[in-house]
Design a protein that fits this description.
The protein has 140 residues and is an alpha+beta fold. It has a single domain (4-137), classed as Homing endonucleases (Endonuclease I-creI, Roll), CATH 3.10.28.10. The protein is built from 5 helices and 4 strands; from the N terminus they run H-E-E-H-E-E-H-H-H. The two termini are 30 Å apart.
Length: 140
């Protein structure tokens, strides 16, 4: 059974709070897309650990990542990208059990701010989108 401290340590070492901004080409006149993802990637032999993590949080998906480069292993990735699950499960967990590494703490705080802006639909405004892009650049 996983503990909060174990999860925090695992995320400090192998996890990521990630933001990706897709800006449309001017000719398409589409809105920007902001993707937020919390994930952990481990070698395939540690898949049971990711499955325990998925059970612990009660959300997210596990994906296989094949890597054919020499001296690299195939990996599994536990990922949460649903905004409701991020806001209702992942963020509250890490607010109650903050990452211990300074860089992961900073990424988490920036991630939370981007999520808040997206929930307020700020990414649909030029000013909001610029703010989100500025926050993303500050992430590790």
């Amino acid at each position: 059974m996983l503990t909060a401290d174990y999860i925090v340590g695992l995320v400090d070492g192998e996890g990521s709070f990630n933001v990706h901004v897709w800006t449309p080409k001017a000719s398409l006149k589409r809105r920007a897309l902001v993707e937020l993802r919390f994930y952990l990637k481990l070698v395939n032999r540690d898949l049971p650990l990711l499955q325990e993590l998925q059970t612990f949080f009660g959300c997210g998906k596990i994906y296989q990542q094949k890597d054919y480069r020499p001296n690299h292993n195939h990996c599994s990735r536990y990922e949460v990208f649903n905004r409701t699950e991020l806001a209702d499960i992942i963020v509250p967990f890490f607010e109650a059990h903050p990452p211990r590494s300074v860089s992961k703490q900073k990424d988490f705080e920036l991630f939370k701010e981007v999520l808040r802006l997206v929930q307020q639909k700020e990414h649909f405004t030029p000013t909001g989108l610029l703010r989100i892009q500025d926050l993303k650049v500050q992430m590790h």
